[in-house]
Write a structure and sequence with these properties.
The complex is a heterodimer. Chain A is an alpha/beta fold. Chain A contains six helices and ten strands. Chain A has one domain (3-223): 3-Layer(aba) Sandwich (Rossmann fold), CATH 3.40.50.300. Chain A has helices at residues 47-54, 79-86, 102-112, 117-130, 146-158, 176-193, and strands at residues 3-14, 21-32, 36-41, 62-67, 70-71, 87-90, 164-168, 196-200, 212-217, 220-223. The longest helix of chain A has 18 residues, at 176-193. The mean pLDDT of chain A is 91. Chain B is 49% helix and 16% strand. Chain B folds into two domains: 4-43 and 253-373, no CATH class; 55-213, no CATH class. In chain B, a hairpin with a 2-residue loop joins β9 and β10 (169-177). In chain B, strands 1, 3, 4, 5, 6, 7, 8, 9, 10, 11, 13 and 14 form a twelve-stranded mixed beta sheet that branches. Chain B is of the alpha+beta class. Chain B has eleven helices and 14 strands. Classes of the chains: A alpha/beta, B alpha+beta. Chains A and B meet through α2, β6 and α3 of A and α1 and α8 of B.
């Protein structure tokens, strides 16, 4: 299988002088096509920083990132273009726009990519129907349960057919039933869309869903 | 989604409405203050222009026409009435003094205009009743008793035959003149120059100025310059007098108001800048999420600027309309100049948008990592 995301010698520091913290320390990582990877480790071990680097939100102090075989150069490329075209994000706190309906929240991602409105509306409806929210298209986030909000968040991440979805603690704010339902949905979506997914989680119970578990400690990968 | 910014505004409608209302009130105040000043300028001009005089003469060092007092010297009057370039016998003494007559038991503000009946300085006829009885004198000493009579501004609401008290004397209203209010709707009371001297100037032969008309073939500016060259008098043209009276009665007292107008502009700019900034703080996470999922700085900036432009435009337009409503309802003469109001509206719009832009620039600097941290 081809590598979708590759990081080589990735290093990231925060702070300066004596207060410098090495968040990611010479990490090499490869995530392959259609893989479901769980990135696990204690709080502060660098999991979120790692997906932020791989998701082109942060710029590494050292190292190289390739997405879908293409090297990423923050100096020469517009990171926002890469994020909207190749990457999908799911956040722990869902982060849906409160003034938009579920359908519009999914459409926003396509609006950023300058997709035609009719096409975006149709795709958003299709995705939300697929995840079982066809009755909730016109509901605002405040009218949705936590599990429903996280589903909408996944639909938004899938909207632009990204190469990879990075999900940061997607089940942290869900109860165990909602958590199980979400993981089932992720598996279904993965089968359906052949999407590569990397999930950062503390939840040991989710391990069984993963193709591979990457264990981190103190900014390094200790097991993969 | 072209309406994304509108949906956001609808979601935050209370803040949007309050911001637009804040701008509306500030803009209408800016325009209203300008309108009050315009009204004062017009009212200051209209009496001066109505006199029909071309040259305004006062004693050297008196401070000028409308400001100081000059002794009426018979020799000078004789000289002026036969003076070079002036219409013969057109030179006339004029008292123009602020007073507080008691009208229907209430002390009120007025300007007493004392002039010689039939000469320059006041109306030659009334719209109701008759003109006051004019004193008949050869020289300009004040002894020349005539009845205490006054012609009042038609808008004062006084009836013919009513009496007002001025300088402890009862003065009878004998006629009404076409309305010619002075600055801040101060009514003019027209009376004989001798009566004005007696009631207001302690019966001394003082006047505020002498006014005269130039021959049609002469340039008033040249005549005024020739007279001004004489050592004991100052002479001004109509244009110079208008400039002096507007400076004395409008511009100088209204300096604080001009300053206030600038402050209101700043307040309008700061208001929208602060509200945009506070809204941006509230939306930090949303902006971070938009950037994290691929929103460019331009996209986020566009979203914020569309809101700023719309709120500013609505606020400024409503302010413009409201200022005309306020002007019509104001208890004093307020004239909002249309061209000036458009210029003020445009400048205000630019100020509001400019400050909103500065706040939006700050907003686009939000780190998309905030979406992961889940905190501001």
């Amino acid at each position: 299988m081809a590598a979708i995301v590759e990081g080589t010698g990735l290093t990231k520091h925060f702070g300066t002088g004596d207060a410098t913290v090495v968040a990611i320390d010479s990490v090499d990582i490869t995530i392959e096509e259609s893989e479901l990877v769980m990135i696990m480790g204690d709080s502060g071990c660098g999991k979120t920083t790692l997906i932020s680097l791989l998701g082109c939100i942060l710029t590494p102090d050292a190292g190289q990132i390739r997405i879908d075989g293409e090297p990423i150069d923050p100096e020469l490329q517009d990171m926002s273009v890469i994020r909207r075209e190749k990457i999908g994000f799911v956040f722990q706190l869902f982060h849906l726009l409160p003034y938009l309906t579920a359908q519009e929240n999914v459409m926003v991602a396509m609006d950023l990519a300058k997709k035609n409105t009719a096409e975006a509306e149709s795709r958003a409806t299709e995705l939300l129907t697929q995840i079982g929210l066809s009755e909730r298209l016109h509901h605002r986030p405040a009218q949705l349960s936590g599990g429903e909000k996280q589903r909408v968040s996944f639909a938004r991440a899938l909207a632009n057919r990204p190469k990879i979805i990075f999900a940061d603690e997607p089940t942290a704010n869900l109860d165990s039933r909602q958590s199980d339902n979400l993981m089932n949905l992720i598996q279904e979506l993965r089968q359906e869309h052949q999407t590569t997914i990397a999930i950062v989680t503390h939840h040991e119970g989710l391990k069984e869903n993963a193709d591979r578990v990457i264990q981190m400690k103190d900014g390094r990968i200790v097991a993969a | 989604m072209k309406t994304l910014f509108l949906k956001d505004m609808r979601y935050r409608q209370a803040r949007v409405v309050l911001t637009a209302l804040g701008i509306t009130v500030l803009i209408s105040l800016i325009l209203l203050l300008g309108g009050i000043m315009n009204g004062m300028r017009i009212q200051a001009r209209q009496y001066v222009e109505s006199t029909g005089a071309d040259v305004w003469i006062s004693a050297e060092g008196s401070g000028g026409a409308f400001i100081g007092f000059s002794m009426v010297v018979e020799e000078y009057m004789a000289f002026l009435n036969s003076g070079p370039g002036l219409v013969p016998d057109s030179a006339a003494p004029l008292v123009f003094a602020q007073a507080r007559p008691t009208v229907r038991g209430k002390s009120t503000k007025a300007i007493v205009v004392g002039y010689k009946l039939g000469q320059l300085g006041g109306p030659k006829s009334t719209v109701e009743g008759r003109m006051f009885t004019g004193s008949n004198f050869e020289d300009y000493r004040p002894e020349d008793p005539v009845p205490y009579e006054v012609v009042v501004d038609e808008k004062m609401g006084l009836e013919i035959g009513e009496q007002i008290t001025l300088g402890n004397e009862k003065v009878r209203v004998v006629g009404k003149a076409k309305s010619l209010m002075f600055v801040l709707d101060t009514p003019l009371l027209f009376m004989d120059v001798r009566i004005a001297q007696k009631l207001l100037l302690g019966n001394t032969p003082h006047v505020n100025m002498m006014i005269a008309k130039t021959n049609k073939s002469e340039q008033p500016a040249q005549i005024a310059a020739d007279l001004d060259a004489l050592e004991t008098i100052e002479a001004r043209t109509l244009k110079q007098t208008l400039r002096d009276i507007i400076a004395y009665y409008v511009d100088e007292p209204m300096k604080a108001v001009q300053f206030l107008r600038v402050m209101l502009w700043l307040a309008a700019g700061i208001l929208i800048g602060m509200i945009t900034y506070v809204t941006m703080l509230e939306k930090t996470q949303e902006i971070g999420v938009l950037k994290a999922i691929g929103g460019s700085n331009g996209y986020v900036m566009g979203l914020l600027l569309k809101q700023v432009v719309l709120i500013s435009a609505v606020g400024v337009l409503l302010g413009l309309m409201l200022s005309y409503v306020f002007a019509a309802a104001a208890p004093i003469f307020v004239l909002i100049n249309f061209v000036e109001s458009i210029i003020v509206a445009c400048i205000s719009f630019v100020v509001c948008c400019g400050s909103g832009y500065l706040a939006a620039r700050k907003a686009i600097a939000v780190d998309p990592m905030i979406a992961f941290r889940g905190e501001i």
